[in-house]
Design brief:
The chain is of the alpha/beta class. The protein has helices at residues 24-35, 68-78, 90-99, 116-125, 140-147, 164-185, 202-211, 247-254, 278-297; strands spanning 60-64, 83-87, 104-108, 134-139, 156-160, 192-196, 216-222, 225-232, 235-241, 244-245, 260-264. Strand 4, helix 5 and strand 5 (156-160) form a beta-alpha-beta unit.
């Protein structure tokens, strides 16, 4: 990595996934874990998204679990990320998804009536919910033996038992990807989108432009530094960061944890300074970061 860039460098289930009463020590662990979640300090579950989110309106997340304790812990763990809609009945949740699709569903697998697998299959049969993102919570044995056919139709599997912090982190990452897809699929009339890296990290941002095969200019600003990248059909063709150009400029900004960005869908560049595909650049940037972290640890 260029030298001038280095500084930037719960669930109640047994081993087979069968529902059971939560043990007191596990409940205590979950509640202790919640104390470290900055959003878990109030009982209000419908809240504003973090300030500065300009990529999408407040996200709506449907939480489905027949265990009221787990449902309550999920609400507290995710509070502040989105508007939360708790539901203990999977059949009722299915009707709600079809009538008013949320942005994301987090659903348990083992539930009475309609289980998680049947729930996802039912969603995929309805035009309005065919592409609705779902995080499915299940024991590893259930994932391996019964749920692998759903791998291509769910956003992620969340292995039970899990910590609330892990669930909250995974859900926020999915919400970031959803925002990225919405951003990549449409632009406002003026053709410019603005946002903050605190709400969408660089990797998701670059991947969304690649997947959307966008032709545009991406301008990223952090403190006194500004990086410009130009895309053609989703591929980064030119990048510049001060005196650093091409691949090295991309490697620098991938590690930026904060800053602001602006995407201009009307901008173009005839320059070709990069030597890899967008995916290739990201993979090499992550390899360099990993190498840098190992060197720092040593």
């Amino acid at each position: 990595m260029p030298r001038n860039c280095r500084r930037n460098a719960a669930s109640a289930a047994d081993a087979n996934g069968n529902p059971q009463r939560l043990k007191p020590d596990y409940v205590a662990t979950l509640r202790h874990d919640l104390k470290s979640c900055p959003s878990a300090n109030t009982d209000v579950y419908i809240t504003q998204s973090p300030p500065g989110v300009e990529l999408m309106n407040r996200a709506r997340v449907l939480l489905i679990d027949d265990n009221p304790l787990i449902l309550d812990l999920m609400k507290k763990g995710l509070q502040g990320f989105a508007e939360l809609i708790p539901c203990a009945d999977s059949t009722q949740a299915l009707v709600q998804c079809v009538s008013a699709p949320p942005d994301l569903v987090i659903c348990d697998y083992r539930m009475p009536g309609v289980d998680g697998k049947q729930f996802v299959e039912a969603l995929r049969k309805q035009p309005q919910t065919q592409s609705l993102p779902v995080i499915l919570m299940a024991a590893q044995s259930d994932i391996d033996e019964k749920l692998r056919p759903l791998s291509d139709t769910v956003e992620e599997f969340l292995v039970k038992p899990f910590y609330v912090r892990e669930m909250a982190t995974r859900a926020r990452k999915v919400l970031e990807r959803i925002a990225a897809r919405k951003m990549a699929s449409s632009a406002p009339p003026e053709g410019v989108i603005r946002g903050r890296l605190a709400e969408m990290n660089m990797i998701d941002l670059l991947q969304s432009l690649e997947l959307g095969q966008k032709t545009c200019a991406l301008r990223v600003v952090r403190d006194a530094e500004t990086c410009k990248m130009f895309f053609s059909g989703g591929q980064i063709v030119h990048a510049e960061l001060g005196g650093v150009i091409g691949d090295d400029a991309v490697f620098c900004v991938v590690s930026w944890p904060d800053g602001s960005f602006e995407i201009d869908f009307n901008a173009r560049s005839d320059k070709q300074t990069t030597t890899r595909s967008t995916q290739g650049l990201l993979m090499e940037a992550l390899r360099l970061l990993d190498e840098q972290n190992r060197d720092s640890a040593g």
